Input
Amino acid sequence: MAYNLRKISPIDFKPSTGVGVKLPFAAENVFSTVYTTKEQLKYNILNYMLTDLGERPMNPNFGMGLRSRLFESITQSTVEDMKQSIQTQIENAFPNVQITQLNIIGQPDRSTINIQFSYTIKSSKETDGILLKIQNI
Output
């Protein structure tokens, strides 16, 4: 008989202990607390995706640089290149995450890129997803 073991972080057993902060920051509280490692991982991935290379002091290699892609023409080749880049960068920056599905929809007439992906946390076997809309206004 096979067992599907999950590794749960000890922090998740303390419901009143904050793990991190939500993104984007709220106007009222500014920092809203996150209480589970699953939810904090999601915000860490979002932060990584929305940060440009060289934007973070003392860590110039942090970030994905997706905003620079808005000025490229959105073709099938560009979308495939973005998929490969996102897959590689997420796997390198977050080794505990496995992307299970990745869809990129480019809308060149609106200068918009929609990135939707689902992922599994390897240690806990939990799944989650992210929908990110990047728009050049």
